[in-house]
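Hi U.,

Before I forget, here's the chain from the pilot set. I'm dumping it here mostly so it's searchable later in email.
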Amino acid sequence: SFVDCSRTPTGRTRVRQTKMGGRYNNKKRKGGGGDDRILKRDFKKGKRENVWDPKKSRVPDAKGEYKPYCKENEKFEEYYKGQRIVPEDEWDAFMESLRTPLPTSFRINGTGKFALDIRDQIENKLFAKVNEGDQSIDEEGNVVEPPRAVRWYPDRLAWQFNYSRQQLRRLPFLESIHDFVKRANEYGSITRQETVSMIPAFFLNITPDHRVLDMCAAPGSKTFQLLEMLHGSLGEEKEKLPTGFVIANDVDLKRCNLLTHQTKRANSPGLLVTNHEAQHFPDIVSRGGRTFQFDAILCDVPCSGDGTMRKAPDIWPRWSVGNGNGLHPLQLKIAVRAAQLLKIGGRLVYSTCTFNPIEDEAVVAALLQQSEGSLKLLDMSDQLPKLIRSPGIHTWEVHTKAGKANSFEEAQEVAKVHPTMFPDPSYAKLPLERCMRILPHQDDTGGFFIAVFEKVAEMPASLNPGPKKLKGPITIKTDLNVVNDAVKVELTLVNTHELRAEREAIAANGGAPLEPEAELLLTEVRGGGTRNRQGGGSQFGGLDPILPVSDEKVIHSIRDTYGIDLAKLPLDKNAVTRTADNTRPKRIYALTDGLREYLAADHREQLKVIAAGLKVFERQEHKDATVSEGACDYRLVQDGLHVMLPFVNRQIIHPTIDELRLILQRRSLQLPGAEDPEKPDRAKFMDDATKAEVNAAVSGSCVFVPRISAADASALPAGCSPEEIAIACWKGKSSVNLLVSKVETDHLLEKLGMEVNKNGPKGGGMDVN
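Structure:
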């Protein structure tokens, strides 16, 4: 039995409404997820005036040049000399390295033979120019070092170089390298990423079935790596997708949008972008009690960032001991939450880009103590053997604005500190030497810290978060149990909508208690609207909902048009849309099996989802009245083409290499027999076999996969398969038109050995007539 209560429980977070553009924007007064305010000073009662202080801006001199930052800070040197993280005889080299610019570094995306072929082209064609003739000396007589492979990165798939702006401007062969890095990063062939930030992903041992969580993911370069590892471990199995997924989470909504853009290039159906405070990331449990803990968690926490001084010299004048002290409690909360979300046997990597032991070893030691044996700090010395690293330390100093503090009691009189910041005698027994600190002078990098844990038992119940404040209409749930011939009554406050949904699920189960589900399917709308939506609803208003594409006509139309075997690619289960009318979705996204089950298990709609899955189809209605009524209104999109192509068996056309180049350049080819004599300059198909395939294809979306003869093999990059340069097109009434962005078109033309204008190809937009 239950009783409906109409009142909101006391203590509920108050919400104020501000009218913006005709809508009401709900904002929490304090600390709401996604808010830009993250530091304590942002919540002080006496708020500072919302006016920028000109004194904080750099002012150019009479020549319009900015004065360089002063790279001296006595307090920084005093603090880190006391911490003894750098051997005394290396101190000068350490400081000198911090004052030099950080090299540009990148890694080649992908795995296997394709990545190795890109590496060989870069190394043999582009980088080799640095060593040609007298080009290794610049105009000022300085030696120009060629780009070098990152010593520890497998298969030489990561590179770095360090050229000044003057060298880039004056030496054309260096400018070509710089231009390549910019273009290839935009294409998605490489990712510009700081060398040290490439390290953590290698310690997670990701496999295709893993559930992976990146707790503080923005801007997304590490998430990109995790997605590559999720897919790369499948090897050469083309007709197979990973069953696992990667969640990229960040507290800031603006950074989540950047994160979505950055990870989009990974083209993975196993990506979920969420917007939560990491320390409050929700537990997901299905109605039947299935839990969803993670196999691998990357916990790259917010930090004071003094390891990034080489690329962010503005840190030099701003550095103070208070930066790290203030972040320590948050870092520990995030690490504890990560350990709670991890499954037994799973791996947790804790990392920062700071040298500070308060944010590094102090957090690791406190986490080990609070876990009471549930976590094991792993020795990774046999992993990445060429990586130069320093061991963690067992004791450190704590400083406040008043100077060195010898105890917590002494420090709290002059500053807000936390007991876990201070080293404890018991830490001598902890294997903190297994932590890894990367120092910039050791291998010309930034600074970094890494600790790798394995979970061996459940975390203590005392660390579990308390019950959350209920939102929405509240119900008193009554449970009756017979214990020793006595009736025991339990009363619990629950959300009314959730209780009703639970009762309906039990009724549908024949009145029997719910059990963990063998398979979870998305059958209902999740997200969107407000939490007062009939039948429940998301607590996160303003976001598009996620709906299953449940209309059989849509799925069967796609299946029949493209010859997709739903047993191999279950679009009937794993296709979703964010269009409110899911009978005519505008865009269709594919999910992995694991991601679909994870979203389906979130029946309380606790997840604030920004992006999910990979866009594979987009609605494109036929303009030609002669097209049959049953024609498919959904076209393949280039972003998802290479994931979909192994499963597509129809609407595939095999042009010659010359015809592929032609449509990439002209963006349109006339249909055979539809040539316009008044426009003789319009491009057209030349090969008879291609013409036959084009005529046989039905109007609408089609795929061009080039036909490679023995004579054409040299036109492709070494090891490049025809499927890797496949393109999405649209067959209209009189022409076949390219459905590829200009950036991607440039990339494909370069692959085919053609010169590309830096300003992009000329030509208008897409015509789908």
